[in-house]
Amino acid sequence: MSKEQAERLAKLDPPCHLCTGICCKQMAVEINRSEADNLIGLLLVLEKNPIKYIFSDGDMFKLAADPCPFLEDDKCVIYDHRPKACEAFNCIRALPTTEIMKKNADLRKLLGKYLKDSNIF
Question: Is 46 helix (H, G, I), strand (E, B) or coil?
């Protein structure tokens, strides 16, 4: 894959600075006990009631989002300390269907060109 193709492929994912926190407004996040303890402390610092936002689900805990208590102006105020589930989240799941189809079309074109240029098929 050429440098140009790699750069174009990297640009298919939406830049984080354009994020509007869609996932942070709609879905609860699974967190472990250690993360729950840390987030309870952060909620207390922000003068928010932890009982309203963190609840147990068996062995795991969940951080409620309606919206997430750490979302301010569509940005995560604990970004550097966010739960692993938030860190691993792939925002393409939060994109509207038309955006996903467009991204997939762009990806198919790019991969098709790569395969053709590589004489793989």
Answer: coil
88/118 Cα distance (integer angstroms): 32
CB count in 10 Å sphere of residue 12: 13
Res 15 pLDDT > 70:
no
Domain that holds residue 44: 3-117
**pLDDT tens for each residue of 63-94:** 987 889 999 988 889 988 899 988 887 665 55
> Which residue matches tokens 């003068």?
47
Cβ atoms 84, 39 nearer than 8 A? no
**Domain count of the fold of the chain:** 1
Strand ranges (E), 23-63: 29-31, 54-57, 60-63
Assess whether pLDDT exceeds 80 at residue 41: yes
CB 39 within 8 A of CB 54: yes
Q: Is the pLDDT of residue 39 over 90?
A: yes
- The torsion of the CA quartet 38, 84, 80, 25, rounded to 10 degrees, works out to -90
